[in-house]
Amino acid sequence: MEKNKKKILIVVDMQKDFTSGVLGNAECEAAVQEVVKVINSNQYDEIYLTRDTHHKDYLETQEGKNLPVEHCIEFSDGWEIRQEIMEAVKDEKVEIVNKPSFGSLLLAEELKNKYFNEMEKVEVTLVGVCTGICVISNAMLIKATLPETKINVIEKACACVTLASHKNAIEAMKMCQINII
After folding, report:
1. Domains, the chain
2. DSSP bridge partners of 97
3. In sequence order, what are the residues at sequence separation of 6 or more whose Cβ sits closer than 8 angstroms to the Cβ of residue 58?
4. Rounded distance, CA 172 to CA 148, Å?
5. Would you say the pTM of this structure is higher than 0.90?
6. Per-residue pLDDT tens for 104-134?
7. Strand, coil or helix: what is 120?
8. Helix axes of 136-145 and 163-175: crossing angle, nearest 10 degrees
9. Cα–Cα distance for residue pair 125/7, rounded to 1 Å
10. Quick one: which of 125, 47, 33 has its CA closest to 92?
């Protein structure tokens, strides 16, 4: 990462349901320690954690009809961000953004409101799960709202439902001028 830039880390959906819970898998579980390493590198000025957030009516929603597995129901154990992640971020420098869908318009707008006039002075890095759904959605929203901001995705600190879906998302992000590290 370039010096003299404000460095922002976005940790996407490192929640129990996506790592060790109902939608977890070995790759997503392994990503937990990689994300902790990224956080512990202490290279970031700001850290945002996104939290997939659904409600009791999840199965009645469009997403619930397409993925009929209740997950990340607000205030449930599976909705919680992994303890290792919370310990690494040290609450005083983190903002949690609950998102009702794959990407967070709220997060993209917050970054736009803070940094639109200094896009070239900001660098955003994303890590987390699932690469092919939520990581790519957030990366694309941020790219659309801050088109002159350098956006990175640390491939080793991301995982998806399958290795193929992870690789497809990585290739799609490359095509959209998102830096893959």
Report:
1. 6-52+81-180 (3.40.50.850)
2. 50
3. 64, 70, 71, 73
4. 18
5. yes
6. 999 999 999 999 999 999 999 999 999 999 9
7. helix
8. 10
9. 8
10. 47
